[in-house]
Amino acid sequence: MTDNKNIIEMNNVGIRYGQGPEILSDIKLSLPQGSFYFLTGQSGAGKTSLLSLMYLAQKPSRGQISVFNHNLNFTNRDQLASLRRRIGVVFQDFRLLDHLSAFDNVALPLRVSGMDEKEIKKRVTELLTWVELEEHMFDKTSILSGGEKQRVAIARSVINRPDLLLADEPTGNVDNIIAGKLMKLFVELNKLGTTVVIATHSDKIINDFKYPRLHLQNRGLHIYYPTDTSMFGGLNV
Question: Is residue 26 situated within a structural domain?
Answer without folding.
Answer: no
